[in-house]
Write a structure and sequence with these properties.
By secondary structure, this protein is α/β, with parallel strands linked by helices. The protein contains 14 helices and 19 strands.
Length: about 475
């Protein structure tokens, strides 16, 4: 007679053997992260380029800053290499540099030189295992969100912060840089923030995870997925449309991420196009978050702005959002350093800020200098702060006086707006900034613009902050 038990036993044994012997192909869930050791004077800090290409000049400048902080910078063997038009070497070369930094026991921390795209190529179960075996602070933002998430999944805390290119351009001297320096040495920031009209009050504890929105969402279900139960989710974004952000947030909800959130922190949403009419990203996301009855903190100064305060990702935190303000505290060892964020974005521009923005080629500057104003043409050079669309050295009143010096009141003029980027950009960004300027000029000189020409040119391959030099030519109309 047919014996079902006799038939099934070999199959069961075979399946059990396969389960035991098959190599791991999926990452396990995130472990409770531990903090790497704080740095001591003389400790080595590696600089790597896991995403887009970064110049050796900038890398060396970043190394000088790290040395001034008392650390010993070491530059990845493949830093300075370039693959295709944007990548900092092939995926294999970038992978090798990260592996080198993790496996060298004398290296105590790793800073990414810049963002862009490409760290997703380094996402493997093996790399996650290497991170777990060699806990080290990894620092960065934007595309580095992948590496921060993978560290958190591996059970290691990381730091969402400025990167090597920022250290280079700012000399490591601004608040965002010095707070990172102090954090590496064991001074843990505790943030006090002003109230935001779209905050949702409440108190929550949880593990802080997240980073750049568009980089975070593809990590769900991978070895770099930092999401577990009881998280405080941090999100920031740059140059995405509102409908793209809406799609990304719905993907989080459909994947059950919101149900695992004890609270949410929204950082900066820089130069994001409101193509849906919400007025702000915070207003759009507020309507999704409110039904979850969790605290929401809006306007945390971290992301793609000048002020990018460090956050310890993977750390247990306490978020307390009140009617009169909010606090974010990190429940990890270290000396507490209270930072009040109110007014940080309103600080006047300094010579250092202008120096960072004015990263241009000498030849191009000479070309502009050779454009001579005449009685029919005035040339106004405008220094713009990235994404904020604010003039640094021209108020609207200054602009009005300049225009009227050659264009009498009620006269009309033609406008040529040249947008010189230091990194390739799509033309709609030039048009948006040009349109913004035209709107401002029309508000001070109503119905005065007869013709508008907007041009775009790339003059330098890139810097992380992607500043630009804009030239405005105003030509009176002679009828």
């Amino acid at each position: 007679m047919w014996n079902k038990r006799t038939f099934l036993s070999p199959i069961v044994i075979t399946l059990l053997c396969l389960i035991v012997l098959t190599p791991e192909i999926k990452a396990t869930g995130p472990k409770k992260p531990v903090a790497p050791a704080y740095l001591k004077p003389g400790d080595k800090v590696a600089i790597i380029t896991p995403s887009y290409y970064g110049s050796m000049e900038k890398t060396r400048q970043a190394a000088m800053v790290l040395r001034s902080w008392g650390f010993e910078p070491v530059i990845g063997p493949n830093v300075g290499k370039q693959y295709l038009t944007q990548y900092a070497g092939t995926a294999e070369q970038r992978y090798a540099d990260l592996l080198w930094a993790l496996n060298d026991p004398s290296i105590k921390a790793i800073v990414c030189e810049r963002g862009g795209y490409g760290s997703l190529h380094l996402l493997t179960v093996q790399m996650r295992q290497e991170m777990a075996a060699s806990p080290k602070w990894i620092m960065g933002y934007s595309d580095a969100t992948t590496l921060l998430g993978m560290e958190n999944n591996a059970g290691v805390m990381s730091i969402h912060s400025v990167m090597g290119c920022n250290l280079a351009s700012r000399g490591g001297a601004d608040l965002s840089c010095t707070l990172l320096r102090d954090l590496l040495k064991g001074q843990v920031p505790q943030y006090e923030l002003p109230a935001h009209p779209l905050d949702i009050t409440g108190q929550a504890t949880g593990t802080l995870v997240g980073g750049n929105f568009a980089t975070l969402v593809p990590l769900l279900g991978t070895p770099a997925d930092p999401v577990t139960d009881g998280i405080i989710l941090f999100l920031e974004e740059v140059e995405e449309t509102y409908h793209s952000i809406d799609r990304l947030f719905n993907m989080l909800m459909l994947n059950g991420v919101l149900a695992k959130c004890n609270g949410i922190i929204l950082g900066d949403f820089t130069d994001c196009e409101d193509d849906l009419g919400y007025g702000s990203v915070e207003a759009m996301l507020h309507k999704y978050i409110a039904p979850y009855n969790i605290p929401l903190l809006c306007g945390f100064p971290a992301g793609h702005e000048k002020v990018n305060l460090p956050l310890v990702m993977g750390a247990p935190v306490t978020l307390n959002v009140r009617d009169d303000g909010a606090t974010l505290t990190f429940d990890i060892p270290g000396a507490q350093n209270t930072i009040r964020t109110e007014g940080l974005r309103n600080e006047p521009m300094t010579a250092l800020d202008v120096s960072e923005i004015m990263t241009i080629q000498d030849a191009k500057f000479t070309e502009w200098q050779n454009i001579k104003p005449s009685k029919d043409t005035i040339l106004v050079r405008l220094y713009w702060k990235l994404a904020k669309e604010e003039l640094l050295d021209f108020s609207l009143d200054d602009l009005k006086r300049t225009i009227h010096s050659v264009c009498p009141e009620n006269d009309r003029f033609e406008l040529t707006y040249w947008d010189y980027y230091v990194e390739e950009k799509s033309s709609y960004l030039a048009a948006r900034r040009g349109t913004f300027l035209c709107q401002q000029m029309d508000s001070i000189c109503p119905n005065s613009i007869s013709k508008i020409t907007i041009k775009q040119e790339t003059i330098v391959r890139f810097t992380e902050q992607q500043p630009g030099y804009r030239v405005l030519m105003i030509c009176p109309v002679r009828e």
